[in-house]
Amino acid sequence: MRLMWQFFHKLGSPKWFYGIAGRWLPWLLISGLILSLAGIVWGLGFAPKDYLQGNSYRIIFIHVPTAFLAQSIYIMMATAAVVTLVWRMKLADMFVRSVAPVGAVLTFLALFTGAVWGKPTWGTWWIWDARLTSMLILLFLYFGVMALAAAIADEKSSARAVAILVLVGVINIPIIKYSVEWWNTLHQPATFKLTEKPSMPAEMWVPLLMVVLGLYLLFGWLAFVRMQTEILYRERRTQWVKAFVRP
Amino acid sequence: MNSECRPVQACVPTAVGVVPAMWAVLRRDLRVSLRQRQDLLNPLLFFVMVVSLFPLGVSPEVSFLQQAGAGILWVAALLSTLLSLDHMFRHDFDDGTLEQLVLQPQPLYLLVLAKTVAHWLVTGLPLVLVAPMLGVMVHLDGNSIAILCLTLLIGTPVLSFIGSIGAALTLGLRSGGVLLSLLIIPLYIPVLIFGTGTVNAAVGGAPVGAYLALLGAFLVLAMTLAPFASAAALRISLSNS
After folding, report:
1. What are the structural domain ranges in chain A?
2. What is the pLDDT of residue A27?
3. Residue by residue, what is the 3-state secondary structure of chain A?
4. Residues A218, A221, A224, A227: what is their CA dihedral angle, to the nearest 10 degrees?
5. How much of chain A, in percent, has pLDDT values that exceed 70?
6. Average pLDDT for residues B178-187, to the nearest whole number?
7. pLDDT in tens, B49-99
8. How many angstroms away from the CA of A135 is the closest CA of chain B?
9. Closest in A140, A151, A164 to B186, CB measured
10. Which residues of chain B neighbour A152 with C-beta distances below 8 Å?
11. Do the chains contact at B236 and A140, CB–CB below 8 Å?
12. Which residues does residue A54 pair with via DSSP β-bridges, in sequence order?
């Protein structure tokens, strides 16, 4: 327990984190690349065809991991927002503003791959299906966080304001999710339905899991790189950054 | 203000109770709004004009208007509330009243609650009162109009409460208006869905009790939680200036 608190206190030091992140980076990148590439090659090239959708189902190996990560990044941001508000930890705020654009891009990718998948399966690029709509609203929430983060110049106020917005958003996510689901089912019986997850054979879900894990690792890598940049920018007036940048 | 001055101690104003303080904030806000009548009228005019755009822009067919009327009125009410949000704290922020509110011994979130109620009374309630007339203009039948007004009555305060968070967060920022809309619109979506859903259910002859109960739940949730977030955001905005 004490060790954990020590680690937590060390997290308060951007300089310490910069070093640690640097040591983690190559491992995250290599393991992430290997896992996701292997998963994608296996999934796209060797996994068996779907009996109903044929080859078009294979976009699942891109679609599901992006959608998965897009949602969990917001949860991670909310956790970091609590840390920002309670302990005023700079790193937590840096995490939030570093990963918000990443989350937005992944949400967009999930929507885009969903549209590409929808065209052959449902015969249309877009339907106002509950899941699509709630992902679209998630994208709006990410945009809001990014806009507010960019609008406030003062670092401390900006950090706390963004944290409040992220928390308000996370309370709303389940409300939005359920209201959209009820809205759709109440309006009309769904004409199209996302294929309920069939009990997939292992040749399908193992590569899928590999891509998901690989993407998490790659996200970790990207988050660390972006946080390092943010640290260098914010601490640009300190001695260690000056010495580091111009040795 | 009563104060007890004793030779040794400094003058300490005796604390006003929480409820009288909230009442004072509410009355002051109402009085200030009533003295600027045009500001009071503008969101209402906007509401009426936006509603009249739909028959002109989409279709004046009775069947279309009956089907879409509730949605049109709800979207217009939402936009009109959104436009008025920027004023919620702006004047008090500019003239320093807000700083005095933050310094009060009473908990800030209760004072914010009173301010939000005042905002609803001058912007949300007029919309509810005009809604029956517009309902007739979009050819809704009597029962549906009554349900529509009921949903607006429960729903517009939710819009004010959620909006107060955005207004407090963007206070003092130069590009506040558009940013405020960006932050708040996604949070308004559940209210919009159930607001229009209730009326559509009523038009279709389905029972509406469950919908109204959910809207009521939103109201309770927004009323209890939003002032906390707004108060925290106000403190941040004030420390920023």
Report:
1. 25-191+203-240
2. 93
3. CHHHHHHHHHCCCHHHHHHHHHHHHHHHHHHHHHHHHHHHHHHHHHCCCECCCEHHHHHHHHHHHHHHHHHHHHHHHHHHHHHHHHHCCHHHHHHHHHHHHHHHHHHHHHHHHHHHHHHHHHCCCCCCCHHHHHHHHHHHHHHHHHHHHHHCCCHHHHHHHHHHHHHHHHHHHHHHHHHHHHHHHHHCCCCCCCCCCCCCCHHHHHHHHHHHHHHHHHHHHHHHHHHHHHHHHHCCCCHHHHHHHCC
4. -60
5. 92
6. 92
7. 999 999 999 888 988 898 888 999 999 999 999 989 988 898 899 888 999
8. 11
9. A140
10. 173, 240
11. no
12. A50
Kindly list the residues from chain A whose CB atom is less than 8 angstroms away from the CB atom of residue B218.
175
Residues B147-178: tens digit of each pLDDT: 999 999 999 999 999 999 999 999 888 777 78
Q: In this predicted structure, what is the pLDDT of residue A188?
A: 41
Give burial (CB, 10 Å; 0-12/13-18/19+) of B28: middle
Per residue in B125-144, pLDDT tens? 999 999 999 999 999 889 99
Q: Is A180–B189 a contact, with Cβ atoms under 8 angstroms apart?
A: yes
Tell if the CB–CB gap between A141 and B237 is shorter than 8 Å: no
Chain A interface test: which of B173, B180, B185, B193 (most A C-beta within 10 Å) = B193
> Which residue, among A137, A170, A179, A188, would best test binding to B if mutated, counting the most B CBs under 10 Å from its CB?
A179
Position A129, amino acid: D
- Model pLDDT, residue A163: 95
Mean pLDDT, rounded, of chain B = 89
For B144, other C-beta atoms within 10 Å of its C-beta total 22
CB–CB contact A148 B239 (8 Å): no
Inter-chain CB proximity A151 and B189 less than 8 Å: no
What number is the ipTM of this complex? 0.85
Which of B180, B189, B211, B221 would best serve as a mutation to test chain A binding (most A beta carbons within 10 A)?
B189
pLDDT above 60 for B217: yes
Selected residues 201-220 of chain B with any CB under 8 Å from a CB in chain A = 201, 218
How much is the pLDDT for B12? Answer: 52
Shortest CA distance from B236: residue in chain A: A157
